[in-house]
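Suppose you are handed only these lines of text.
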Amino acid sequence: MPHGIDVPIGKIVKRHLNAIKDYCEANPTELENLMDPAYSSKIFGLGRLPFFAEVGSPVLRDENTRYWQDPVFTVNGKIVRVCSQWVVERHLVPFQQYLVSKNIATTYDPPSPAPTRRGIPSRQRMNTRYRAYRIADAQNAVIRHILSNLGEETFNEADWENTKQYFSNRCAYCGIQGSLQMDHGFPINKSKLGEHRIGNLIPSCGICNNSRKGDKDFKEFLGSDADKIRLIEEYMESRQYTPLAGNAQVKDILEMAYKDVAVLAERYVAILETLLSSAAPPTQADPP
Ligand SMILES: [Zn+2]
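From them, the structure of the protein bound to zinc ion can be written out as follows.
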């Protein structure tokens, strides 16, 4: 696991074994399935190891150490042990999807998540809670972080003071004097590809920065004001700032990062939901 998170997948599997055994007793073909290496490979990704191995079978002679000693189940007259070779990155999501598909556990709410191509349950209900944290906030924050950390340059307050002087201590957009804020000529997002570096730092009055410019780049914002656009472009050149704007490869890579943040979040929601649902109350099949 990245980040040192230890998900006890063996424990999670073990907690569901009684329910899986009950399911197999009610559905004998599933016992056959779970003793079939091809089925176990397809459903769980366990490779050549079947989920259940019958005591005395060649599988257990050859792969004894890859099956738990305990528990041993008697299911439909067959004595079986359970594969112990579970790896959280590879097997947790398929295992929980299996449980849901057989109604062995209601891991999700809603109970029938559509698997995505990445094998991770879709999470349409995410972000539908009133005032919930939006994943886009995290996605955009990661993009800003990446774009803000490109390059080796360092700068300090004196560089910012020099920048304000370059623009005669006026707002580079409307020309007003007064208190100036640090704006980014190219906004730091995945469509404008601005960076937090000298050359893209533009002095701006609060009104232009906060309420007018928004996500526009300086050219879009200034429109037909060619003189102000030229001044900003000259300033960028003077600081050897080459905008990334329009770089399709950079855009593609940032799109990947943007999606990865959502996948990461979904993955950890799924892991935690599996962990928490492992302690689920007895199902209806259990005696009262
Ligand atoms: Zn202004």
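What can we learn from it? The radius of gyration is 29 Å. The longest strand covers residues 78-82.
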